[in-house]
Amino acid sequence: MNDSAVALSANTVLAANTVPSVKAVADGPGPGRKAIPGVRRTGQYIPTPPPRRTLPLARRRRPAYIPLAPAQERMWHAARSGKSSDWNVAKAVRLSGPELRPEALAAAIDDVVARHEPLRTRYPATALGPAQVVLPASEARVRPALVTVDEAELPHRIAELAASEFDLAVDLPLRAGLFVLGPQDIVLVLVVHHISLDGRSIAPLLRDLVMAYSARQAGAEPTWTPLPVDYVDYTLWKHAQLGDYSDEWSRATQQLCYWANTLAGRTAVLEFPYTRARPAGARSAAGEMAPVAFDPGVHRALLDRADAAQASLFMVLQAAFAVAVGAFSGSADVTVATTVAGRDHHLLDDLVGNFANDVLMRVRLDRAGDVDELLEQVRRVALAAFAHPDTPDQRLKRCLPEDTAGPLFQATLILQRGATGRPAEADPEAGLTITEIDTGVIRAKHDLEFGLLEHYDEAGAPVGIDGALIYPTDRFERHTAVAFVELFTSIVQLFAGGYHGPLTGLRL
Description:
Elements: H1 10-13, H2 22-27, H3 70-83, E1 88-96, H4 102-115, E2 121-122, E3 125-126, E4 129-130, E5 133-134, E6 145-148, H5 154-163, E7 174-182, E8 185-193, H6 202-217, H7 231-242, H8 251-263, E9 287-294, H9 296-308, H10 313-329, E10 333-340, E11 357-364, H11 371-386, H12 393-397, E12 411-417, E13 424-427, E14 432-437, E15 448-456, E16 462-472, H13 478-496, H14 504-507
Parallel strand pairs: 6-7, 12-15
Antiparallel strand pairs: 1-8, 1-14, 2-5, 3-4, 7-8, 9-16, 10-11, 13-14, 15-16
């Protein structure tokens, strides 16, 4: 199907299909005849989608061509457009103990790369489209550099490692550095392209790294529980579920129809009060953060407000975010975004890979008379967005001519549940600890990007929300970003305080 056609409804698209004869439609099934799906005795043809099969997630035979998963396509096109390093994910862990062995660390990295296929996958362009090419473990050696540094030099070294671009068609999507601060103090830095890793991959990645290092330090190979499926199995399963765009009833086509219709006629570019003109040439991803925090009282009040609206905490925060974005841009028609985890099967929990995707939420502030109506609108919009998470950006842009030159969205809010930050002990008897540390690397991929964490105590009681706004330093002065954080904070506090009134005052 031509992408531009999906803005039409599925029923309109089906007009080109073969329709039963007038007599058959008028007569109905009759004796000895089978009913025709979608045909009523009134003479009207009502297209009926074929039943969908539930496909099991399991290991699959590997075809010669393995496509990208939907979540990977955006990353691949971003890298091709000259923004590859914008999507580098840098993680650092500090190892402290009396028996550190750099060679055991290097072997542990190779063990993890062998276990998780996306860490040894290349992504070349082919005649059939971008592909996943998984290298044999024996050919995927990372070979981290071993460099002696001091504390003052470490941030620069990490930033330098994180800034180097990957050629996804040629390079492994992972590089590593071992920075020696002392005989009992080493910092391991892993830089992975986002096409091969998402936020929820960090926990299994670090867990497996600790396990592999413990084994290698003892002179053994790690003995892990085998993974039930690999990322390629997930990719093939996902494409089998979505079907082909040439099928008007496929999930892929239905999702594309939804987005093309939902976003048609929207305000494509929001005019924020930029304090710096965009420099000539490619945009810079250099960013800074402006912190934001809400105390336990506000957290509890927001949860109560969400319960009363039959919504979630995320939906309440997203509604406040939409109001703030609308006020900041002077627009009553705003498109904001969030990220969905995409791990819609329990067999995917322990995999390293990129399952996450952006979904858009078009919020019409001018169609909500008060805050309660806005919360209901955001609830419906969010649920619909979460049900349509798999449409690649490039394909959607071809259906929205007004969006071809710019980004699909400029503002995003992501809410996650915070975890207890305790060090992972690899060998308690030897006193070895492995602790994740802040890399100091900040990438501003969008104009306004809130990353928020909600925190709970051991009894499950809310203890606060914190996080930061990430903003590009080539567009905003810090005082402008701080002003937006203050605007968002004030609206959230109004919602928590029980404000039910009209939006007009909030937008002004």
